[in-house]
Amino acid sequence: MAWQPTPYTVPLLVAAVASFAFAAYAVGNRSRGGHALLRSFVGVAGTAGVWSLAYAAQLSATSLDLTLFFNRFVWLGSAGLAVAWPAFVLSYVDRTAWLDRRRFALFWVVPVAFAVAVWTVGVDPLFYVDPALVDAGGFRVLEYAPTPALLGFVGYTYAVNLFTYAVLGYAAVSRDGVFRRQAAVLFVAGVAPLALGAAGIAGLVGPEDGVVDFTPIAFSGTSALLAWVVFRYRLLDVSPIARDAVFANLSDGVVVCDAHGRVVDNNDPAKALFPDAELGVHADEAFADVPSVADAVAEAASDDEFRVTVDGDGAPRFLTVDVHDITGPGTTRGGTVLLFRDVTERETLQRRYRALIEKSPNVIAVCGEDGLVRYVSPSIERLIGHRPNEIEGRPVIDLVHPEDRREAQQAFERAFEGAEPQSLTHRIACADGSWRRFETVIERLFADTREVVITATDVTDARRYEQRLQVLNRVLRHDLKNDTNVIGGYADLLRDHVDEEGDPYLDIIDRKVRTLTHLSDQAREIDVALHSDAGRTEIDLAELVDRLCESLESSFPEATVTVTIPDSAVVSADELLESAVRNVLENAVVHNDGDDPHVEATVVADGDRFRIDVADDGPGIPPVERTVFSEARETALEHASGLGLWLVHWIVTESGGDLEIDTREPTGTVVRMWLPRADSESG
Q1: Can you give the three-state secondary structure of 81-125, one letter per residue?
Q2: Which residue(s) pair with 600 in the sheet?
Q3: Which of 107, 112, 194, 385 is the most core-located residue (most Cβ within 10 A)?
Q4: Mind spelling out the 3-state secondary structure of 3-47?
Q5: Which residues form the PAC domain (predicted)?
Q6: Longest dimension (CA), the chain
Q7: Residue 509: how many CB atoms within 10 A of its CB?
Q8: Residue 131: which H helix or E strand, with range?
Q9: What gap in Å lies between CA 371 and CA 604, rounded to an integer?
Q10: DSSP alpha helices (H): ranges in 360-404?
Q11: Is the previous residue joined to 402 through a cis bond, with omega within 30 degrees of 0?
Q12: What would the mean pLDDT of 662-683 be, rounded to a whole number?
C-alpha cells in the first residue's frame, strides 16, 4: 500500500494524539466534575481524534478507493462531533434539561442518520458527484462536486455550531473570574476550526485544485487551548455549574477574602447582610460592625465557628460564622472563606422555648432510661423548693412518696415500652419536708431516643378545693334535705295545735320546705350531670315531651298543659336530656304565682335540628338568672330556678345544642332548646 506525504499529515496526527490523550485523561479522572460534562468532554475529544486521524489517512492515501474508504471514517468523526460538542456546551452552562432523550434528539437524529447513510449508501454518490484525485502541488487530494445532501449536512452543522457559540459567548460575558476565562477559551477553541474550515471551502487557504478540509487540521492548534482550559483553569475540577448551584444560589451568605484580607468574592445573601463588604474592600472595613469576623480573617487560625449578631432592619439577626482557610501552594495561606448562616428563626424559637419552660407553672423534666434526671425546669424551685442543680443527676424516683413509688416506677417503664403517654397522680417531696400532690404525664421525648419527658402539675390546692366542694355538696344534697323533711314533719304536727290565724304561717313554712327540697334534688341532678360518663344517644323528643307533660299534669292538677308535637322527632343528645326538659317544665309551674298556671310545650323541626319551646304565663325569670349560662362565672340566684338553668344549660350544651330564654308578652317566659337531628332522622 503506497502512501504520500502531505504538509497536513503531521498537524493532523498531532491533533489526533492530543485528542485521544484528552479523552484518556478525562476517563482516568471520571470522579471529578459532573457526569454529563465528563461524558460529553470525552465524546468531543474522542470524535475529534477520530476525525483528525481518519483525515490524515485520507490525505495520505494514493488511490481513490482508499481515499473514499478513509473518508467514511472522516464523516463518522464529523457526525460524532456534531453530537458531542453541543452536549458538552449544554453541560458546561448547566442546561442539562436539554440532554434528555426527547430534546437532545434535535441534535443527534440528523448526524446519526447521515452516519448510517454514509456506511450503507457510501459517500459516493451520497455526498460527492464524480469524485477524483487531482494534483495539489506534489500530492493528490480529492476533488468533487457537492450533492444537496452534503450541502444540507454542512449547513446543519454550521447552524448547530453557531448556536453553541452564542451560548458560550453569553457565558463569557455574563460570568466573571476564572469562569469567564474558561468560557472565553472554549469559545475560541470552538470558533477557530469552523472559521478555518470555512476559509478552506471558500478557497482562501489551501491548494488551488482539490478540496482540503482545514477543520480537523485546526484541532492541532485548538488542542493547546483545550489543554490550557483543562489544566490551567481546571475545567474538570471547577465549572460555572458548581459556582451557580453551590455559591451564587446558596441561601447562606458567603464571603471570600484573599491572603491580604480583601474581599474578592461574595454572593447576594452576604451582600444583604453586610452591604459594606464590596469587592476590593478590606475585611476591617467590610465587617466594622462585627470586629470578631474581621479578626477571624486576619488571624491565620484553623477552621472555626462562632456566633455574631447584626442589625437587620431594626431587628437583631443571629448568625453563625464558619471560617475556612484557603491553602495555596505548599503551606501558604491563600485566603479565607466565611460562611454566614442565618439562625434567627431557630434562635428565636429556642429563646421562646426556654422562656416557656422557665416560666411554666409545671415541673418539666427529662430522664434517661437509667431513671436519672438529665434536665429539670427552673419552676421546680418555685413549686417545691428544690434547685435544678440539686435534682439533676439524681434518680427521679427519689422525689416520689414511698407509698407512690411502685406505681410511678411502673408508669415510667411503660413510657419506654410504647408511644402512649402514661398518667398518674402521686406525691412529691418538698425541700421543707412536706409533700404536695401532682398529676404527672410521662411520655417518650422522641421516637428514636431513650429519654422521656415528665410534666408534673401541682394539684394540691385543686384537690383540697374539690374535697371542700364535695363536703358542701353532701351537706346540700343530704343533710339539708333531711333537715327540711324534719321541719316539714313538725310543721304538719303543729297544724293540730294552732288556731286559724296560725295556718298562713304554716303554709309559708310548707312552701319554703318544698323549695329547699326541690333545690336539694336539683343539686343531686347537677352532681350526676357533672360526674356522669353518659354519652350521646338517640332520643325521640315527641315521645319524651308528651310523657313529661302527662307527668306534669299529674303532679300539678291545677296547671293547664298544652302539647304540640310531631309524630317523630329523633335527636342525638346526652342521655340526661330528660332531666333538663323536666326542669324547664317544672320551673314553668313551680315558679308561676297564678292560681291556674298555663304551660305550652311544642316540638318543631328547625333546619337540621329540632326545637323544643316551653312557654308559660308566669311572672318571668329575672334577667340575672336568664344570663347565668352566658356568663363565664357564677351569679347571684334569686331563687332555685337559677340552679336549674345551670343544669339545663350544661346538658343541652353537652348534647351539641343551644339554649335561649326570652320574655313572653304580656307576661311569662319562653325557653327554647335546639338539638341536632339523629343520623337516622337526617337520612
Answers
A1: HHHHHHHHHHHHCCCHHHHCHHHHHHHHHHHHHHHHHHHHCCHHH
A2: 562, 615
A3: 107
A4: ECCCCCHHHHHHHHHHHHHHHHHHHHCCCCCCHHHHHHHHHHHHH
A5: 302-355
A6: 163
A7: 16
A8: strand 128-135
A9: 62
A10: 379-384, 388-391
A11: no
A12: 83
List CB contacts of 125: < 8 A, sequence separation 6 or more: 147
Where would I find the beta strands (DSSP E) of 492-629? 536-540, 560-564, 570-574, 598-606, 609-616
- Pairwise pLDDT comparison (603 vs 38), residue with the higher score: 603
Are 451 and 442 within 8 A, CB to CB?
no
CA-angle at 444, arms to 440 and 446, nearest 5°:
140
Pick from 101-115, 268-282, 426-440: least confident: 101-115
CA neighbor of 211 nearest in space, from 77, 55, 65, 82: 55
Which grid cell sits at 435?
A: 409533700
Q: Which amino acid is at 583?
A: N
What is d(CA 305, CA 229) in angstroms, rounded to the nearest whole number?
A: 35
- pLDDT confidence tier of residue 562, bands split at 50, 70 and 90: very high
pTM to 2 decimal places: 0.41
Q: Within 10 Å of residue 465's Cβ, how many Cβ atoms?
A: 11
Looking at residues 557-571, what average pLDDT do you find?
Answer: 92
DSSP 403: G
Q: Which residue has the cell 402521686?
A: 426
If phi over 0 gives left and psi between -120 and 50 gives alpha, with beta otherwise, what is residue 158? alpha
Burial of 11 (0-12, 13-18, 19+ CB in 10 A): buried
Rounded distance between C-alpha atoms, residue 557 and residue 559, angstroms: 5
The interaxial angle of helices 215-227 and 9-28, nearest 10 deg, is 40
Locate 385 and state its grid cell: 423548693
CB neighbours of residue 143 within 10 Å: 16
The predicted structure's pLDDT at residue 78? 85
Q: Residue by residue, what is the 3-state secondary structure of 181-249? A: HHHHHHHHHHHHHHHHHHHHHCCCCCCCCCCCCCHHHHHHHHHHHHHHHHHHCCCCCCCHHHHHHHHHC
Tell me whether residue 575 is exposed, middle or buried, using C-beta atoms within 10 angstroms of its C-beta: 0 to 12, 13 to 18, 19 or more. Answer: middle
The continuous run of DSSP H or E covering 364 comes out as: strand 363-368
pLDDT of residue 474: 59
Give CA–CA dist 84/363, Å, rounded. Answer: 69
- Separation in Å, CA 437 to CA 13, 101, 426, 427: 95, 72, 6, 4
The CA distance from 272 to 55, in Å, is 57
Mean pLDDT of 284-309: 79
Crossing angle (nearest 10°) for helices 177-201 and 64-92: 150
| Closest listed residue to residue 239, CA positions, set 422, 483, 506, 33 | 33
